[in-house]
């Protein structure tokens, strides 16, 4: 008699496919969050309203396998896929995704008899897990009110985008005969609000994901740069979203080849960026890296001294404007700031 395993081959295949899709799509979700931040006009926080999209895949794994532990396994695999896909969180993304899987199961199983409630509770808990883990690991939020506001956003997002839409997706899969029904239902297809919204949601995500991977992911957003290295946590900055913090300086470019007369430049101070990213106490150097790999280095003390260094827009991309510094420090096409 062949041995009987807890997870069937179908279970493992379902977990592998959905977790891998979730890991790859996480880069797109980050982009979508930045778009929402831009529309709202805030540098961060509002994007947590789509945090539930990270958890949707875990809810589907739990719903389709019906096995305890599948969400945790799916979270671990999703985090690994995010890591090898080049997540800016590095190896930490695997830990965060695992925690999401654990919390999703905590919310899902106690209410299993009530399908809608279990999906929404699992989604809410899973989305909140990321905010909680980030706060415990990196102290991202400076006060309890900001932490509470972002937590509520993530809980709402998890309940809607992971739970509510998860119900619609599973209903549609059951009606199509792709998966077995959890309970007996009428054979006639039922048109429900959840199902209609789920279809619209899938179509909208598919369209915008194609746009993201075809245009943004391949070309990169020229007005976005990343701060990484010895900071509280790596972070992407979309420069226009920080307009309330812009300053204007008058500077002249004196390079070996290029010379520009003194003129006004408006942009985001490097000092603000480094303070916001919360550089480590032992950090001493900062690299400014352009899209072509061109790199210039400064001492942290120089970069934090005043507002002589700003990140300004120029011809549709970003340039480091360095008042009083040699022309070679004016890095064009700025894409990354690395602290070490």
Compute the gyration radius: what is it?
Answer: 23 Å
Residue share in β-strands: 15-25%
**What is the helical fraction, as a range of percent?**
40-55%
Number of domains: 2
Shape: elongated
The ordered string of helix (H) and strand (E) elements is HHHHHHHEEEEHEEHEEE
Counting helices, strands and paired strands, the structural category is: alpha+beta
- Number of DSSP strand runs: 9
Strand order of the largest sheet: 2-1-9-5-6
Low-pLDDT parts are 185-189
Quaternary structure of the protein: single chain
Q: Counting H and I runs of at least 4 residues, what is the number of helices?
A: 9
Instruction: Report on the biggest sheet.
Output: 5 strands, mixed
Keywords for this entry:
alpha+beta; 2 domains; five-stranded mixed beta sheet; four-stranded antiparallel beta sheet; 9 helices; 9 strands; 17% strand; elongated
Please explain how this structure is put together:
Helix content is 51%, strand content 17%. By secondary structure, it is an alpha+beta fold. It folds into 2 domains: 211 residues, no CATH class; 116 residues, Oxidoreductase, molybdopterin-binding domain (Sulfite Oxidase, Chain A, domain 2, Alpha-Beta Complex), CATH 3.90.420.10. A 5-stranded mixed beta sheet has the order 2-1-9-5-6. A hairpin with a 2-residue loop joins strand 7 and strand 8. Helix 1 runs antiparallel to helix 2, helix 2 crosses helix 3 and helix 5 runs antiparallel to helix 6. The chain is elongated, with a radius of gyration of 23 Å. 38% of the residues are buried.
């Amino acid at each position: 008699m062949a041995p009987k395993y807890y997870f069937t081959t179908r279970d493992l295949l379902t977990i592998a496919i959905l977790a891998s899709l979730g890991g790859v799509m996480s880069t797109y979700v980050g982009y979508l969050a930045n778009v929402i931040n831009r529309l709202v006009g805030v540098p961060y926080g509002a994007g947590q309203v789509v945090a539930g999209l990270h958890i949707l895949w875990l809810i589907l794994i739990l719903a389709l396998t019906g096995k305890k532990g599948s969400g945790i396994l799916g979270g671990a695999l999703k985090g690994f896929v995010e890591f090898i896909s080049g997540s800016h969180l590095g190896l930490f993304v695997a830990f965060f995704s695992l925690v999401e899987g654990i919390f999703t199961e905590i919310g899902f199983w106690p209410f299993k008899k009530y399908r809608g409630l279990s999906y929404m509770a699992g989604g809410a808990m899973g989305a909140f897990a990321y905010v909680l883990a980030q706060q415990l690991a990196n102290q991202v939020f400076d006060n309890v009110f900001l932490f509470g506001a972002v937590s509520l956003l993530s809980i709402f997002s998890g309940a809607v985008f992971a739970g509510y839409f998860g119900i619609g997706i599973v209903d549609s899969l059951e009606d199509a005969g792709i998966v077995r029904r959890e309970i007996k239902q009428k054979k006639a297809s039922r048109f429900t609000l959840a199902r209609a919204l789920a279809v619209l949601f899938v179509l909208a995500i598919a369209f915008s994901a194609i746009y993201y991977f075809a245009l943004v992911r391949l070309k990169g957003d020229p007005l976005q740069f990343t701060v990484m290295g010895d900071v509280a946590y790596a972070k992407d900055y979309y420069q226009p979203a920080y307009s309330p913090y812009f300053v204007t300086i008058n500077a002249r470019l004196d390079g070996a080849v290029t010379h520009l007369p003194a003129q006004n430049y408006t942009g985001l101070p490097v000092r603000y960026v480094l303070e916001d990213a919360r550089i480590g106490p032992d950090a001493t150097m900062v690299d400014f890296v352009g899209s072509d790999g061109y790199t210039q280095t400064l001492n942290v003390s120089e970069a934090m001294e005043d507002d002589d260094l700003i990140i300004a827009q120029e011809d549709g991309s970003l340039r480091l404007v360095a008042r009083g510094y040699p022309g070679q420090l004016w890095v064009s096409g700025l894409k990354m700031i690395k602290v070490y």
